Amino acid sequence: MASVFGIPLAVFMGQLLLGLINGAFYAVLSLGLALIFGLLNIINFAHGAQYMMGAFAAWLLLTVLGIGYWPALVLAPLIVGLFGMAVERTMLRRLAKLDPLYGLLLTFGLALVIEGLFRQQYGVSGQPYQVPEALQGVIKLGFMFLPIYRGWVVLASLVVCLGTWVAIEKTKLGALLRAATENPSLVRAFGVNVPMMITATYGFGAALAGLAGVLAAPVYAVNPLMGSNIIIVVFAVVVIGGMGSILGSVLTGFGLGLIEGLTKVFYPEASSTIIFVIMAIVLLVKPAGLFGKAG
Amino acid sequence: MDFRKWMMASAVALLAAGANAQISDNVVKIGVLTDLSGAYSDLAGKGSVVAAELAVADFGGKVKGVPVQVVSADHQNKPDIGSAIANRWIDTEQVDAIVDVPTSSVALAIQEITRTKNRVHLNSTAGASSLTGEKCSPTMVHWTYDTYAQAHGTGTALTKQGGDTWFFIAADYAFGKALQEDTEAAVKDAGGKVLGSVKAPFPNTDFSSFLLQAQASGAKVVGLANAGADTINAIKQAHEFGLDKSGQKLTGLLTFVSDIHSLGLETAQGIVITDSWYWDLNDDTRAWAKRWSEKMGGGRMPTSVQAGVYSAVMHYLKAIDKSGTDEAKKVVDTMKTMPINDMFAKNGKIRADGRMVHDMYLVEIKKPSESKYPWDYYKILRTIPGDEAYRPLDKGNCPLVAAK
User: Fold this and answer.
1) In this structure, what CATH number is given to the domain that contains residue B45?
2) The total number of structural domains that make up chain B
3) Model's pTM, two decimal places?
4) Which of A139, B56, B224, B308 suits B15 as a labelling partner, its CA being 20 to 30 A distant?
């Protein structure tokens, strides 16, 4: 049997695929973060909490209103997005002219409050959420069993990432948005409602986190701490990719998922630290990140 | 005038104190030191405090004429924080017994403090079997379970049922390592073989990579040597990857009924575990669970370790009543002479090393179709007699045993 670095090719391929799947979560989450930072200059520490809210929104929709996975895939991000817009309007806006550090502190505090409230209400051991019926089961790939749901996660996140990138980089709306971050008063002079655009952008970033939460609900335990577990890794992804670089964060998300997956085969004990080792190296060699613009 | 009043009051107080000279500070204070906000706050946490309060209320709120009080604190699963609270409780707040103490690292720290300062340590939720082994203490009782009993209950049973090849996914810290080693020993004793193992970082959310390795190993049983959210994530994802469908059996070596509740029966069905108590065992357990649930709210049912807190506190108060003192070593010695017969244990006994020996249960998780009412999760496969479940007294290297 063919082998790579001493492990059977089949196992190797399987691990690569799993890495890609985890990368998909990292990509969607870091995309939202990069978007918010790149366009609004806000370091959104509430991103993990918004991810958790997405998962809980899906669970609440199901248990309270009987609304299943597919509608939740749209509704939950919408709810989280609206919440995000409210946060931007009522709180973040007041800090817009200050150092980004203040935004970081505010969103970090907000994340603690949100997580605390959910913990108080629902406890820490998590809520059950099943894989939707249409996506249950596994596909035999020859080298591994691929749960259909995981395949769906990769597909969905690829579509979302690509769609967002196209919207920001290739459409008129995206162009306006980018212009508004460069020179808000000039864009406003052209009759564009810049504050509204900023609110909507933050809402969209939050909605992306919410979407990742819904995607995660059937595979990870839906509990109030799920966001704080993943947010640190996602921040590392954004730093490695280059703060604010949309394409960079997506590519880095997938890439680091792969590297993490391989670490789990060769030396699993290090799999939770490998990303930070890479982050340290990248910061030393290329402080602006792999895809970031220096200065 | 004022001075005279003060003198009289003092005299009365002194007289009252004289009447129960053996009870220090005229109060028996029980400190529930637990995890009120982190990973174990659902399986122990506030539910343990409620269990202790129920025990005090059922005892009548007083022992030997002095009031019994329950205080509680959050040790956040950190040994330094737990130690600081314990020291403060003992030095300035007259706490006589420290109860519950999840997380083995914190429990081991409390073990040393209570040993040196001569206070009672009634542990229900920590797992480390060294608490009654090398680290045993004359003022400590380990009430509900330990890693040895968990490992042997599940390891032996599954191996004898034909699951004679094993693969382990262990949390990469002391507890996971101990649980894996104990289980490996049990599996080998029963004639089984260990095909491989992997150490997962702690905490960890994605287990798919490790599950794939488990699948590739071809082992008949995959043992999860972890706890809490890690176990939940691993079981959830094992179900997703179809481990059960490809003929592999999965077992959580330390799984509580609250974990099953989080997973849902759809995902958890068919898993075999060992537990030390179940709310739906008989009329006594059901009656107690109902009272606990009403006090707790939220429609939850108690875990084995929460029930253990009740049982331990009750037995502690009975021992004070019998011995007439709250001096730690004497009370624990008295506890060791009295059998335990309550809703938690039948003919339970406390050994010289501090181990409370009682029956354990080998459990299979029900299918959704078999579950008739909320929290109806366990099918009892076998009652494991206490003497078989726990480590033999002479095998733990407890100095208290050697001295005898």
Assistant:
1) 3.40.50.2300
2) 2
3) 0.84
4) B56
